Amino acid sequence: MTTPHALQPISGGQRTAIYTEGFAADSQSTYREMRRRHPSFANVELAPDVPATLVIGYETAVQILNDADHFPADPRRWQDTVPGDSPILSTLGWRPNALRNEGADHRRFRSAGTDALGGVDLHAMHALVEEIAITLVNEFCAVGEAELIGQYVYPLVCTAIDTMLGIEPDIGEHLAAGTTQSFDNTVDPEAATETMVAALQDHVRRKRADPGDDVTSRLIGHPAELSDEELIEQIATLYTAAVEPQVHLIANALLLLVTDEPFSGGLRDGSLSTRDALDWVLFNDPPLANACARYPRQPMLMEGVWLPADEPVLVSMAACNDDPKVRGGDRSGNRSHLAFGAGRHRCPAQSAAYRIAQDAVDQLLDAVPDAELQVRASELHWRPGAFHRSLVALPVAFHPAPPLNPVRR
After folding, report:
1. What is the DSSP track for 23-42?
2. What is the pTM of this model?
3. Nearest to 54 by CA among 34, 80, 74
4. Lowest-confidence range among 170-179, 216-225, 372-381?
5. 290 near 315, Cβ under 8 Å?
6. How far apart are CA 259 and CA 376, in angstroms?
7. Neighbours of 98 (CB within 10 A)
8. Per CATH, the architecture of 8-397 is what?
9. What is the DSSP string of 166-183?
10. Cβ partners under 8 Å of residue 337, min gap 6
11. Residue-wise pLDDT tens digits, 287-344
């Protein structure tokens, strides 16, 4: 008789470590092997001795993400079973924010964040990204080569998000460093968290004293009346959810456009748009490959598989988007990918994410349209980690070009 303690019908207890360099180097082959064992679920390890279930079936993922009663996002009962010094808690641990709560707390945090983001002027964001991009491109366009993530994408995204949140440059430097460490689950995630919290405490103090037209000021003035601790958590959530995924959405799109001649040709002749390139990436190479952790309140039987109570169930956006049941045909204009999640925890900043990414890609390709990889695609390195799909570097070469004229407003 099958018991609700393990996913034995899938693979006899075997678990796939999805945090290793080997997985990062060829994750798609691993997803295909998972699907050979079961069409919707896989046994995985998120870190050493941290088991979880990975959802690889599209329809199953949509069902789970829309069923917060049986699959809540609050991790506290699971967290009680994890050693307090486990680095996985820097990513999945409970926080007083919309991502890690349900019920009244979720509604309160979600309304504050959604309302604050709703005040972002996308036309002003377009102008800002153009200005940032020109400044950055002018630093390398005459050289004929660049490492695009470090020299272009990362500083562009950080500056745009800092401006959107009202974060001053000195604080932004500390946040960027802490976010990178936290996102990678590096050896000292506690130190990374402390760096971010100290920087955000300073940021909140400054904004309370001198509010402006930015997301943080709108959070401070929101009827939810967030405490300083809650404010810091909302801003940290917005920042970490924006910077790293946004960087690698842009980087993965640029990789596509400098390696896929039919796609880049379609962009040049107008048959495809930059938005099509972004959606291709969100289907095929999403920067958040595995996310949306849920924690069943009780053992759940789905498709012949028992999902243990309180053990993480993560959605693999990368695998679900590749589900043979939903994949196929021309996806131009198709936004059915799960890259932004689904259900009540769906990302509330999609419009801003698309705006920044599209403008960043357009500005670079307008300046250096002949950019090509300096190495073979097989020689690129992907950062190991259970959750993300992100390049270490993206080196390109191009014909040297004259500096662009700065934006005058």
Report:
1. HHHTHHHHHHHHHHH-SSEE
2. 0.92
3. 34
4. 170-179
5. yes
6. 9
7. 25
8. Orthogonal Bundle (1.10)
9. T--HHHHHHHHHHHHHHH
10. 279, 282, 283, 286, 317, 321
11. 999 999 999 999 999 999 999 999 999 999 999 999 988 876 665 656 688 999 999 9
